[in-house]
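Ticket #4471: structure export looks truncated?
Reporter: QA, pipeline team
Priority: medium

Steps to reproduce: submit the single chain below to the structure queue and open the exported record.
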Amino acid sequence: MLVSALLTSVGINTGLCFLFFILYSVLRKQPINYEVYVPRLLAEGKSRRRSHFNLERLIPSPGWVKKAWQLTEDELLSLSGLDAVVFMRIIGFSLRVFAFAGVIGIFILLPVNTSGDQLTSVDFADLTNNSLDVFTISNINSGSYKLWFHFSAVYAVTAFVCYLLYYEYNYISSKRIAFFYASKPQPEQFTILVRSIPVAQGGSVSESVDNFFREYHPSSYLSHVVVRRTRKLRNLINDAKKLYKRLIHLQSYPNENDQRSCCFGLFRRRVDLVDQYEKKLEDLEENLRMEQSEVSLATDEVRAAFVSFNSRYAAATAFHMQQSINPIQWITEEAPEPHDVYWPFFSSSFMKKWLSKLVVIVACILLTILFLIPVVVVQGLTNLNQLEVWFPFLKSILTITFVSQVITGYLPSLILQLFLKIVPPIMEFLSSIQGYISHSAIEKSACNKVLWFTIWNIFFATVFSGSVLYQVSIFLDPKNIPSKLAVSVPAQASFFIAYVVTSGWTSTSSELFRVIPFIGSLVMRPCVKRNPDDELEVPSIPYHRDIPRILFFGVLGITYFFLAPLILPFLLIYLCLAYIIYRNQFLNVYAPKYETGGKFWPIVHNSTIFSLVLMHAIAVGIFTLKKLSLASTLIFPLPILTLLFNEYCRKRFLPIFIAYSAETLILKDREDRNDHSMPEFFERLETAYQDPALLPIQYSPHTDDLNAPLISSSTAV
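Actual output as written to the record:
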């Protein structure tokens, strides 16, 4: 029945994937869907909106697959940056790992497993009614020589994965340096963030910064911009933008003069509304101007500033050196890209920041505990007997074969996937209040949180079904972890195969189809008429959602490849879908909002090392339970060697992802000496980190005194 339920799940998801591919091929060519499926091409002017529905364009075509396949890495680098290249390298890395593991697992280990008779022999005439356990290592007799095939497979895959990890780390490191050499001068390369700035009585933060860096960095200090509290300003600007959009909409559709202005039946002429909104907008701009003037005073200064230097090497030296005798003053950090700065963070007090970190820890623990509820429900759905106990009135329905197969094979993973949808935005919000100064740092932190949350709540909570205290008690007794994993992990093979099919196949297909944006466009289109001159907002790929999903499937694949190799074909299908679909998305849909220079790769490396060590722990337990003590003993060097390899990579490659070397910075600085555009760049650098809320803003046509900048940065002569 397990195999039958799994095949039902595969059939449902295969149909959904095929339907999504057909719908995408058709809908992306229709005029009402351009903003959903090709927003990047529209924004870049490579495509144009069409005002008519073309019946001939209803014919699906695979042309987008060919274009996505032909996209080279250099083209992807120029289109979406190094982060997109790293993302696709993650998928390519996983494909190579599981292609190698698949050859071993499907052609060697699977026949070995089915040849055993520990459980029962395989009835190939009635394959769908076999238990999935007969395809796993559990079907091998205790003490059988056949277990040495699994032992050899563990060693072979470990060696292959470590080789690929080294190759990818080395390749991406070199790409990161080459990307830096090829880049034009950027503000973040010449700037650092300084916090905990001491201020003399009666002085200001700006004066303290200027005096300090003129004194101790006289030859390299260029300028600084003091950070100010602008939370109220940002709220006013958001209100002004909303009002401006409504005003533009009213002015763009004069033929709707007689429409109701609200749902209570109040009639107003369009011209009255336009005048009213223009007056509101002028008043709002005046309030905004007054608030900006107040913020420019020293009383609203935050004890933080962006300090710029005349060379990259000087900025790096200031960043890495302790600036003061007192280590909690003049604390330096790397500056993010100007448009990557998370300005709301600076408006929080020190106590609020400290409390926020504590709240985030507590919130993550509570979320982990609460998430066990759907996990328990899902485990109940996979067991028909338990389901009949919970809902006795469903007994008659559960006797129907197809219904029982859908409930046990498809529904559990689908429910779990729906609950997991809310985790990435929650983790992103928690990271945003944790004290990071950039959107990219927030997303990296959220990526780590989502990954380890998924590993704990989906893998361990499913494997060790039970209470929270029971799960914690297992890890408090490390000696028994391998044996408990050896018993529990193979038993959940059918669930995780169904999870890969449901969560993996459907998620990639829905990513292609863009279900939520598509439904949103259909709902909002009759209510909101878009002005053709409106700027189109191009989305960016949510790395904190997609990278953890791929890495979690990597954990499942590496863990189960020698236990239940039947999972590998489903993983390979998922990765092939992801490889084509995400290339298409980078080409047509997503545009980068920031660039980390490939800093997501260390997360991938650490996750893969964890997967290998987890696989080794399970292998020790399995060989012990199967009474093959020699194999269990010989496995012990593997995790030690793997961790030593990880330590080598950490010392060899990780520093490249933390900071650039002096050699790299000096060579780049020397190259800039012959660049005649550098004086102009340094002029722009002086105001590059100006808070956007302090920049002059003008929406109304009657306000002409908002063109001068409010606050000028302090500049060293």
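Status: closed, not a bug. The export was complete when the record was re-opened. Leaving a note from the reviewer for reference: The two ends are 80 Å apart (CA to CA).
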